[in-house]
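Let's practice the habit of predicting before peeking. Look at the sequence and jot down your guess about where helices and strands might fall. Then scroll down.
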Amino acid sequence: MKVIIIEDEVAACDNLRKIIKQIDPEIEILGCFDTVTESVLWLGNHLMPDLIFMDIQLADGSSFSIFECVNVESPVIFTTAYDEFAIDAFKVNSIDYILKPVTLENTRKAIEKYNHLNNLSLQKIISQMHSLLKPKDFAVRILVPLKDKIISVKTENIAFFYNTEGMTEVTALDKTKYRIDKSLDAIMDKLDPAQFIRANRQYILSKNALKDITIWFDSRLLINLIIDTPEKIFISKNRAAEFKNWYAL
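Done guessing? Here is the structure:
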């Protein structure tokens, strides 16, 4: 059996790796991915694994966004810290879910459940899961206040979102600036992850605004846009490969 783990906590991923190997040393773990972007890139460029262990909340958003970007044809075991009542739908529409903390016992039960399902049952569950997590329409416009009016701005004309002092500033490619009362998390959830990326805590960047990338002295990336930004935009060493992969697509 070949599996992948989608989990943004290093300790939790390492723990799940050890538990899976304890249960069955023959299971091959192909990789562990901690973001929506990284997971989409891997799934879009590799054969589907036999099984996916997937945390619901990842470093750059909900793992449900993965299903909006790539056709996942593998059964999923969700791992989550959410209360049971919050994920009732997944009792029916996934192989199983594991309520954190992940233990040898609850992981063994989930794998045994997978092993006892026949191919027809697996296909039915995958189909049900796709219906539940059907792709949403990404925002093509956002509403912004302008004096005593509200106007709409096309997302294709936005260069970046910048969060400062609890307020989000929207800068268009023509350098026009707007302010909106929404968090970067809420905004990113509505945007197409193929065109926008959460660079760090302060920035969401549009691919249309990128000029080039400078490799910084400590293996970070300095992102240069075609227009000026309030402060320099750095991508951490840990996310450098993910960012370059996103930029290349």
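How did you do? DSSP finds eight helices and 17 strands in the chain.
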